């Protein structure tokens, strides 16, 4: 059966705000620390965020290359946003390397997580680069959804060490700020595709990414909880409760995840830049102009 060509599945122009500024915040966290300074005793949030952070150094390098591979021919605005995106992601990589060292100093072995990410990224070699961009776009939506939730709901970091909390807030602000860059790059790179094909590929990739994301992060978190001596039903229920019940980041981001499959979706359909303002006042000295 042929696709219903009369249905508009994508907007003709992206709703990225015309006045959006992507700011590089040259912040540094978690230096000169000791193994005693950590998450303040909440094991399930600690495991989840350690598992996330362990994926970021290699993952964000992948995002950078996937977006840069499709910047040729981009207009001046998108080209400038890609440059700012790259700078922000490089800083995120640097700070998560420091955060991961903090986790290791606290006694956690996260090398297996990094190795899994390395092996998965090796599987992307040789496949069409547009699929790497589609995966990046889906994962950037995940980071933007969680960033919004982490900033909007203080309960996520209520028990965290203050510097750890500030690092995650900083990262969340910049994920919100550049949440449309990979998507706009996708629209640019697939501008000659039919609307049906663009919607189909990005939707299928989101389903694939979702399955792998939760399977791998669950297994990684279980491994880290086992290192804390928490296993079996206690570990499974505790992590499920943390993710779905309270504070419930997975439950709370579900509507935003579902919106990704809507014909005509764009990350900036929801302008949540007010959350950035909650952060900026505390760190004004770290702001750097973008080119």
From TrEMBL:
The keyword Hydrolase applies. Its EC number is 3.-.-.-. The keyword Secreted does not apply. It is an enzyme of class 3 (hydrolase). Keywords: Hydrolase. GO terms for molecular function: hydrolase activity. This is Metal-dependent hydrolase.
């Amino acid at each position: 059966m042929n696709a219903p060509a009369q249905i508009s599945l994508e907007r003709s122009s992206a709703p990225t705000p015309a006045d959006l500024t992507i700011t590089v915040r040259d912040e540094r966290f978690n230096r000169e620390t000791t193994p005693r300074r950590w998450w303040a005793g909440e094991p399930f949030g600690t495991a989840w965020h350690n598992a996330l952070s362990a994926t970021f150094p290699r993952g964000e390098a992948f995002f950078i290359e996937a977006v840069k591979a499709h910047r040729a021919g981009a207009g001046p605005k998108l080209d400038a946003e890609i440059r700012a995106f790259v700078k922000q992601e490089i800083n995120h990589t640097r700070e998560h390397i420091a955060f991961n060292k903090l986790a290791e100093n606290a006694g956690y072995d996260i090398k297996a997580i990094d190795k899994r990410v390395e092996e998965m990224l090796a599987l992307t070699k040789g496949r069409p680069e547009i699929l790497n961009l589609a995966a990046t776009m889906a994962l950037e939506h995940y980071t933007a959804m969680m960033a919004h939730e982490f900033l909007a709901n203080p309960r996520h970091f209520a028990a965290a060490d203050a510097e750890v909390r500030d690092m995650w807030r900083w990262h969340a602000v910049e994920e919100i700020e550049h949440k449309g860059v990979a998507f706009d790059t996708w629209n640019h790179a697939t501008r000659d595709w039919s609307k049906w094909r663009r919607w189909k590929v990005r939707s299928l990739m989101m389903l694939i990414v979702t399955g792998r994301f939760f399977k791998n992060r669950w297994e990684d978190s279980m491994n880290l909880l086992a290192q804390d001596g928490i296993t079996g039903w206690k570990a499974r229920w505790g992590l499920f409760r943390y993710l779905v019940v309270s504070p419930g980041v997975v439950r709370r981001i579900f509507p935003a995840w579902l919106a990704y499959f809507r014909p005509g979706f764009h990350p900036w359909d929801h302008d949540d830049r007010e959350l950035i303002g909650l952060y900026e006042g505390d760190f004004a000295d770290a702001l750097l102009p973008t080119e």
